[in-house]
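Aim 2, interim progress: modelling of the S-adenosylmethionine-bound target.
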Amino acid sequence: MEEARPSKTALRVALRRAAHQLYDAKPLVLDDPIAVLILGDTYAEELRRTPTRPDRPFSVALRAFLVARSRYAEDNLAQAVAQGVTQYVLLGTGLDTFAHRNPFPHLRVFEVDHPATQQWKRELLETGGLFAPENLTYVPVDFERQRLPEQLDSAGFDPHVPTFFACLGVVPYLTLEAFRSTIDFIAEQRPGSGVVLDYGQPRSALPFLEKLAHDSLAARVQLAGEPFQLFFTPTEIAAELTAFRNREDLGSAEINARYFTGRTDNLKVLGSAGRLLSAWL
Ligand SMILES: C[S@@+](CC[C@H](N)C(=O)[O-])C[C@H]1O[C@@H](n2cnc3c(N)ncnc32)[C@H](O)[C@@H]1O
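Predicted structure of the complex, ligand included:
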């Protein structure tokens, strides 16, 4: 992504999480009372324009995927905390609001993000009168230029306790080298640590209509200055994660079965491009 500018894709994702709070039927898949607040008046107009029309199925499906991935991360985090995890590291946090809804008093939260995006988020929070909770630490890092372990270390990260990591909406924007060094670092953590990430399948693995949806999304993120550069098939990503046990890799059928059954609206994920993965040490 561009060095000095906050992530535009982080804004787009946050707009869709906020749209979910306002426009989708209850019960929500991701109940996030901060999602609209963090955007404040600055982006209220963009929020009204955020596509929610049911006649744009790929757009609705994208919103479904984005709320499901945050919910999946928080479900896995709850399991991790129940098993003794006391640190949560959000890699490429964007405008994620978990730290402001954290129900676990002993869980320390580290928000790792590109410095420009993190600064912008902090300004939005301040404008909205949302103050950083005591157990939140900001860690500015550019994954392509800085070393994550050193930056976390100087922020007070404790490598001696099990930690849960979320890496949501980040993998497709990384180089393979940055992805591998991030995964290698997570793989070195204490037993009981875990990670949730989402990834996209390569265009060549998609059926025709999904190739068109892929091209449209890829063109939009390219225009935003954050081109996609990394995709995996399930077999390929499994080969990257051999250090982990109990891997779970969900496609749209499993995601719909878990989070979108019995809804009164038509919110659900579509196609085979996006997948959710969790893995443990
Ligand atoms: C699509 S947004 C997702 C944000 C957030 N995880 C969410 O789900 O709302 C991508 C995030 O990755 C971060 N990112 C992309 N490339 C990065 C890099 N080289 N170093 C640090 N962060 C990066 C951006 O700043 C942005 O916050």
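Residues 121 and 241 are 31 Å apart (CA to CA). The chain has a mean pLDDT of 94.
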